What does this fold into?
Amino acid sequence: MDKGAHFHKCDFQVHTPRDLGWIGNDATSDADRKAYAEELILACRNKGLEAIAITDHHDFSFFPYVKSAARAEVDEKGQPIRDEDKVVVFPGIELTLTAPNCQALLILDADFPENLLPSVLTALSITQAPPTDTKHAQVVRIPQSVINDLTHLYEVLNSHSYLTGRFIVFPNVTENGHGTLLRSGFANFYKSMPCVGGYTDGPVSKFGRGNRSSLVGITGQVSSVPDLPSALSAMGSRGQASCSASSAGPTSA
It folds into this structure.
């Protein structure tokens, strides 16, 4: 088996019609959700995206539909796509933290057991709306009594055997905004975080010199994952701000 490193074009922040910020048509029924998932996988194929993470806010409900669509994808002749060529779909959520006061992407292994996804939410004291609801629940910040910094987030997640070594966290490191670590008073959180990267709302090339230097590793030794500026918008824009990720296996980012 080939276990060498490979680079894949990815989008690690994908929201669905379940998300409160979604501006397209809703998808409530199973049929509607399956149809959306199939369209999403087709859009990924057309844009050359090889891997995506479904990261609605504090909610995993839509992930199984997209995962199933990727598994069932066929080519233009109606033949199943080879397993090694299928779009890899990672389960994830966008976290809204109190300490530090920021947003972060939590992304799990692509083969993470779906029946354990509710346990991940329980570990973070998140209450998910019923899967049959059109939208996810109103986002409530994870309290400091549950997670008091990013190191503690890793400790809490790794304390569960089913999560140990099966996740990655990308905090928001956009240059400006209410959800980023790159703002006044957050330097210590940024310097001490155990995360190997972060995500940005837009290209790093537009950052100021100081913040850009931190992100590319001159001072902070942190790499960044670009975020789609229109992540909640039409699928026609998907892939315009994607990133490349190296993996040593089919389920690692």
Q: What stands out?
A: Residues 6-247 form a domain with the TIM Barrel fold (CATH 3.20.20). Residues 68 and 180 are 33 Å apart (CA to CA). Residues 218-241, 246-253 have pLDDT under 50 and may be disordered. The chain is about 25% helix and 20% strand.
